[in-house]
Amino acid sequence: MSAQELAIAGDADVVRVRQAVRAAAVSAKLSLVDQTKLVTAASELARNTLTYGGGGGAVVEEVFNGLRKGVKAIFHDKGPGIADLQLALTDGYTSGSGMGLGLGGARRLVDEFTIDTAPGDGTTVTVVKWAR
Amino acid sequence: MTSEPFGDLIERCRAAEDDLVRRWRADVAASLRGRISEVELDKELRDLLDAVLSAVGSSQGGDTKSPAYGEVRALLVDLSRARALQGFSPSETAINVFTLKRAVREVVGAGAEFQPFSDVIDDLGLFTFETYARAREEVIAQQAEQLLELATPVVKLWPGVVALPLVGTLDSARAQVVMEKLLQTLVDTGSEYAIIDITGVPAVDTQVAQHLLKTIVAARLMGAECIISGIRPQIAQTIVALGIEFGDIATKATLADALMLALGRIGVDVAAEMSKRGL
What is the pLDDT of residues A91-104, one digit of tens each? Predict the structure, then answer.
């Protein structure tokens, strides 16, 4: 399966991203637990893209590192960016009205997690979950 | 009266109308796969051709937004709506219009006047496409609304115990409907226990959890206790990794366990109840 590009502009798009990630996870033969973890992480990140990034997009693709298959998801927006990354990753901190667990929780749910962000420069979050 | 750019194309089309419809129908019918009978199709295309020829032959000629095209547009709206509801794909619908070009070219012949005619058909094809998309969107919006209502039944399990089986995605709009419905049912039935079953919720993220917690706090304010059931192993592990705390809210793996817990807390003697009802 090639990379799939999805726009995130509304609540319905979050659901669409979730379904695309689930389909990729099933195809990469992730276990049920890992599927659920990845889908939940994608749900958090897609909602962050929408709520804090003002909308953006997601790229979902299957990856292979020579040993294991996995799913990579990239969430990008051109929003205000994150000024204090450590604070944003702290459990319980939110600049909005959520629980403040999404970003840090998403990091714990996946195998690889990277954030590229700068104030005023948008945010790109890349996550990978490998099949065991 | 003939408008200039089309020359005598209209007259030639009129003269060959039967051949034209036959040729056109053959192209369209290939994509129908039995969903519409040939007789119906024949009538549709004949009406459409007649309307198109009248409109093109009128003084306004090539402007498809002019009043002369009113009947053509009405016919196309009916056609694309019907096709959208019958499950035709967008190209299977647009082909109804675009294949008229080939029919005219092959039956009547293409001269200099064919180009403006072809432009008119392109415009009408696009119009068909847009109407089709709008009809599809209406269907989707309707279904979304129906789902919103469908997916939130509150069922009575026992006097004083109600259950709310949640299925699907719990977004903000649904969470609001669910909360209102549950709180109202608690008042109507005077129940002390509500079991929220999330077996049918595919993923519990922080937003879903927040909605659940708010609903439970609201129910508590009304004096009712909530139990969450249907927490499957993968959901439990995800909730732990996310760091969501359910605090002192009772959670169970299955609806049966949750019902047992509620009955135990109310102090129901199931055997006595059964003999009382003669079961």
Answer: 889 988 888 899 99
pTM: 0.64
The answer to whether A66 and A11 have CB atoms below 8 angstroms apart is: no
Of B233, B235, B241, the CB nearest to A109: B241
Number of domains in chain A: 1
Domain around B103 = 4-147
Q: Is A8 in contact with A46 (CB distance < 8 Å)?
A: yes
Classify the phi-psi angles of A75: left when phi > 0, otherwise alpha if psi is within -120 to 50, otherwise beta.
beta
Q: Do B206 and A101 make contact, defined as CB atoms within 8 angstroms? A: yes
pLDDT above 90 for A132: no
Last residue of a domain, one of B107, B122, B147: B147
Q: Are residues B137 and B81 in the same domain?
A: yes
**pLDDT band at residue B96 under the 50/70/90 scheme:** confident
Query: For the segment A104-124, what is each residue's pLDDT rounded down to a tens digit?
Result: 999 999 999 999 999 989 999
Q: Give A55's contacts (C-beta < 8 A, 6+ positions apart).
A: A7, A8, A9, A10, A49, A77
Strand partners, B158: B161
User: How large is the angle between the packed helices B90-107 and B114-150, nearest 10 degrees?
Assistant: 160
Q: With beta carbons under 8 A apart, name residues in chain B contacting A14.
A: 171
Number of folded domains that form chain B: 2
Measure in Å the smallest separation between the Cα of A109 and chain B Cα atoms.
6
ipTM: 0.78
Q: Which of B147, B181, B205 is the last residue of a domain?
A: B147
* Phi, psi angle pair for A4, to nearest 5°: -115, 125
Note the pLDDT tens digit of each residue in B154-178.
899 999 999 999 887 777 777 788 8
Q: Which of A14, A36, A98 is the closest to B238 by Cβ? A: A36
* Domain CATH number, residue B266: 3.30.750.24
Q: Is B176 on the interface with A (CB under 8 A)?
A: no
